[in-house]
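Here is one chain, start to finish.
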Amino acid sequence: MSDRKPKSGVQAVIWDFGGVLTSSPFEAFNRFEVERGLPADFIRQVNSTNPDTNAWALFERSDISLDEFDRKFSDEAQTLGGAVTGKEVVSLLSGDIRPDMVTALKRCKEHFKVGCITNNVSAGEGAGMARSHDKAAAVADVMALFDHVIESSKIGMRKPDPRIYQLACETLDVDPNKSIYLDDLGINLKPAKALGMTTIKVLSGEQGLSDLETTVGMSLR
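Its structure:
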C-alpha cells in the first residue's frame, strides 16, 4: 500500500459521524440496558420498530420536539415491555471522537473531497449532539474539516432515504461511482451502494480505517 498516491478515480470520501468518527452510541445503549436490567439491544429494537414513522424517525427529521420525542419513545418502549424515556436515550448519543479516524479524514482531505451525512437530532450541542461544551467544541473542529455536512435534523430527510446520498454527491459535485461512503449501519449503506458508491461498514475504528486504506490504496495514519 502506497504512502504517497491514492488510487486514481476516487473523487470523494463521505462519512457518517456517530459510530464512524466517534465511538458507537450502541455501546452506551448496551451499558444502559445492563444497568436497567433490560434485554440486550432493547433500545435498538424500539428504534427499528416502524422505522419510518416511530419517535426516532420523527425526531431525526425534526418533525417533533424533544419533549414530544421523550413521551412518544417512552410509550413505544412500554409497548415492547421496557421502561426508557426519550430523554434518557438522547443522553447516551454523544460518543467519543476516534483520533485515528480524524487523522484519516485529514489525509483524505489532501486528495479528495470530503463530506458528512449524519442522522442526528436537535438536542445537545452541535452536529454531534454533544452533552458538554468541551465535547461540542471538539466535534465542531472535526466538522470544520468537511467540505459539506448534511444533518438530518436540519434538512428534514434522514438515512436511508436514497435522496440524501444523491444530495451529498450533487452538493460535492462528484460522481457516486467515484465516491466512498462509510457508515456503521448496513441499512444506511444499501442505498449508497445502489447509487453506485463504494461502501464500507464500520464495525470498529481499526477495522474501518484499515478497510478505507485498502479502498483508497494509501496509508491514512
